[in-house]
Model the fold of this input.
Amino acid sequence: MSEKIVQTAGRNQLGEFAPEFAHFNDDVLFGENWNNQDIDVKTRCIITVVALMSQGITDSSLKYHIENAKSHGVTEKEMAAIITHVAFYAGWPKAWAVFNLAKEVYGE
Done:
């Protein structure tokens, strides 16, 4: 079993304003879903990047998930291939936006 994923961003950023949302974010989404062992964490990271890219989300949440993917073993070459592959299904302009974030994360 891999190291347990713990998230506190919900409580840190929204705890007083939206405590129920913070609970769902930290305890359910990350606490339960991300710790489910049916999918390995590296694959889960890739799926999350693809889902956010497909929706056109290119804010700090996508950058966080690209960083998370990198820290869980997704190489720069793999990330470039993932973004390129998804570009054909999700859209070319989305890929450009995601490549800009990925380049920041991978230090280019």
